[in-house]
Write a structure and sequence with these properties.
By secondary structure, this protein is mainly beta. The chain has one domain: Methylamine Dehydrogenase, Chain H (7 Propeller), CATH 2.130.10.10. The chain has 2 helices and 29 strands. Strands 1-2-3-4-29 form a 5-stranded mixed beta sheet, with no helix packed on it. The protein has a 4-stranded antiparallel beta sheet with strand order 5-6-7-8. A 4-stranded antiparallel beta sheet has the order 9-10-11-12, with no helix packed on it. A hairpin with a 5-residue loop joins β23 and β24.
Length: about 325
């Protein structure tokens, strides 16, 4: 998804006031591993649900901490990278436990920011890390960090998505930065920014590349779809007023070509073929209208992270989980 926590927090403070919630109920990111177990990144640490068994883990400071992102590399299904507000944790895991961990943060890795907003990996297993101070790249066990990136001035990166040889970075107020890889490095660097593109806003909150290669950009003022590599062409779809709230926090696709959208006003399913929009809110059973993340399981059920716990949607009803009930007995990695 949106740093991401700071970005959302400031918006919530300004637009909604301070929200009362129990520690660990703000679920910022969700991932499901190959064992069918769910991982929840919260404002109070990392949780893993293995069937009916829950485990909670400290982050880098021997405190619960805030987890913004959980991402799996393309080459290793038994490894996860966890982005927090105090650095990065790489963990190896089995069906029932975390087996190993390695940490990366500014004081020992020359990383310029310990706040990790988003992570993604390309098909060569190169890792890309969006931070409020620039872009981190991890390749062949070597870190590089760019405080000057293309023509982005503020370097406040909120999101990242890699697809093939192209990597897209979302920024807070400066649109989208795009780089294209070649055998010797990077080429074809460019940006998408209004008014030279049809982005609904230059404040990008999340990026998703669907199964057909279309780029979906969530912004603070709606969502835009781009089906081209030219910044000026191929902007063939946008949604603003149809959303329950124009601040988009998450985008994901299911196997029926539906696009699921998280907003600060509820959950949305877009039928791309018919352009029909379906909306769910607290009135329909969600624990909160503030959606932080969405994950589609292998069985096509939907996991939703909100600021008041997680929810599991089977297409008919929501099963809500108060994650703070399980975020009490932490263990070390």
């Amino acid at each position: 998804m949106v740093g991401r926590t700071l970005f959302l927090f400031l918006i919530l403070l300004s637009d909604y006031g301070i929200i009362n919630q129990r520690p660990g109920d703000n679920v910022l990111t969700i991932f499901e591993d190959e064992y069918g177990h769910q991982w929840f990144g919260t404002d109070q640490g990392l949780l893993r649900k293995c069937g009916d068994v829950w485990r909670a883990y400290y982050t880098l400071t021997d405190l619960p901490g805030t987890v913004n992102e959980i991402k799996q590399p393309t080459s290793d299904i038994s490894e996860l990278w966890i982005g927090t507000t105090t650095g990065i944790i790489k963990v190896g895991y089995s069906s029932d436990k975390i087996k190993s961990s390695e940490v990366y943060y500014s004081s020992i890795n020359s990383f310029k920011s310990d706040i990790i907003n988003a992570i993604d990996f390309d098909d060569k297993n190169v890792g890309y890390f969006a931070t409020p101070k620039g872009v981190g790249i991890f390749a062949n066990a070597v870190w590089k960090f760019y405080t000057r990136f293309i023509d982005i001035v503020k370097n406040e990166f909120t999101s990242v998505k890699a697809k093939g040889d192209t990597i897209y970075f979302g920024t807070n107020g400066e649109g989208v930065a795009r780089i294209i890889k070649n055998s010797d490095g990077y080429s074809g660097a460019s940006t998408y920014i209004t008014p030279w593109s049809d982005l609904t806003s230059d404040s990008i909150t999340c990026i998703y590349i669907d199964s057909k290669g279309n780029q979906w950009y969530g912004t603070t003022k709606g969502i835009s779809k781009h089906s081209n590599t030219d910044a000026k062409d191929g902007w063939d779809f946008s949604i603003t007023n149809q959303l329950p709230n124009q601040f988009v926090t998450a985008i994901v696709e299911d196997l029926s070509d539906n696009i699921w959208i998280g907003t600060l006003g509820g959950l949305v399913k877009l039928n791309v073929k018919s352009c029909e929009v379906y909306i769910w809110t607290m009135d329909n059973g969600l624990p909160s209208n503030v959606i932080n993340d969405i994950f589609i399981s292998k069985d096509q059920s939907v996991w939703i992270g909100t600021d008041f716990g997680a929810s599991h949607f089977n297409g008919f009803s929501f099963v809500n989980i108060r994650t703070s009930d399980y975020a009490k007995n932490y263990t070390s990695f």
